[in-house]
Please model this.
Amino acid sequence: MYYTYGTITSSTYTEMLHSDLVVAFGFNPAETRMSGGGGTYDWSTCTQGKKVIMIDPRYSDSALGKEDKWLAIRPGTDAALCEALAYEIIRQGKADKAFLDKYCIGYDSDTLPASAKPNSDYKSHILGLGEDGIAKTPEWAAKITGIASNEIVALAQDLMNASTPFICQGLGPQRHAIGEQTVRSIVILPLLLGKIGISGTNSGIWPSHGRSSISLSPKGDNPYSGSISFFTWSDAIVRGVDFTPEKDGLKGVEKLDSNIRFIWNYAGNALINQHSDSFGTHEILASREADELFILVHDVFMTPSAKYADILLPDLTDLEHTDISAFGGTNQETVIPMTTSVNSPVDAKGCFEVTYEIAKRLGLEGAVFEGKNYDQWLDELYKRDQANNAKLPDYKDLVEGGLYKIPNPDFKNVAFSSFFADPEANKLSTPSGKVEIYSETLAAMSTHWELPEGDLIPAIPMYHKTWESYEDTETREQFPLQLIGHHTKSRTHSSFHNIKWLTEAVEDAVWINPKDAAERGITDGAKVEISNDRGSVIIAAKVTPLIMPGVTSLAQGAWLNSDNLSTKVDTGGNVNALTKYHPTPIGKCNPQHTNLVEIRLA
Model:
């Protein structure tokens, strides 16, 4: 989004009320933003009476009873679908050229930057006049996506017929080998139609909620300017000094002075469980290169990651300390005082107290904490919030009430409405000040950055065959099934996987289509082994037509359980025993839905 719009903005859920078509790519708030405090309620109420089309390899709880049509798509191929939709929109003369010329750069040759090669614009690419010479027809996309060409044409027609299409995507589609192209390709659709910036439309990304009145603690300033992407932390333990901006996305500095030597892992299970290639990560943490690495873990449970701690500190649970949280819903905000009468049964300390004690030993407690303890900071921050929002009650009344609701029935946010109303007065923060369908920044990166073979950074959004995708026919000879890792309502990522009541509520099992199961002699509930060259997972099979043939899914977040990590066999159901460490080209991010596996009876 930063390379297209310069920032990230989306319309609120309530704009679906003003839409005549909702098209959702990999969007699943019922399992990722569950309950009334998340997106499930908003999604359910705002889509009532609307035509809803869900595009997802798996029939999720968000589709259940809400969709007019479920289009099962092969993982990682959403960009190919978008290109075929664009082909139909352009072919039928429904691309709003006047709109695109006014607001965008690089739709066609008329707005292509002078630095760009001829026919490198988006329209030429779609019509087969670009470098690859392939017209992105529905028939072309059908072979890649698994969606029949007539269904693609029908979806294009729905989009063209809609007055206010609300197009959105979840966070899963981006978590693929070249996930940035999926995001950009979906975002192009409302632009092609000229249906953005008006009520009932969206920018193409996850819809937003209302704003919150509750602020966060001040963070202070980091005196060090260098940073790496979160996903590359394990690599930086071994070769951080070799990181470069062009190869590893290093920011703020030209090189790092050392490999990572200290990790403070607070309330997180990403050391081993929530990071790609769990067994490969274990080898890094246990290797000679990690001898100088010191790990501090601060948590409330003995997670798989906590077992790697040199020092393990017990944290306070939410039931053992005070705080204030808030949820900025669609038409009201809920402010929640978190209070306690529970004394911690162990010598636990919260994050504030631990950092205060460290600051005190460094002689920095005055500069960092300004002489205030936790309760004083809580009071100070809430008073600041009250000064900015007269609707907030006194803290005493907030606590006595338990929940405080601030009605906001008129709140709305239409993505980029100011820019599209007056592009000269409200220029975007892109280099051109316009929407960059063609990005000169990305074009420069494509020539200067060092990428692994097969990766690319195109100047325009485009589909590209990747490693361990459906089109990776060489790897599919040994590992023919695609594997993704969906979210489940029984936990938030890996949090609460150790709560037996929750694991009973949602079974941990690998979803497999009846056709694929029959070919392997697998019946529902049978113990199976999911494997590839990175490891294997022993788990029950869920045989269901709610996932498309050729695709399997194992809920992410289950705790790694291996008696001997050197065997690379997990019996806990951790999908990251099978995922690959291979950062995405632009953001150096998480590709954890791009996997090829085989499944056999265990």
Notes: DSSP finds 20 helices and 19 strands in the chain.
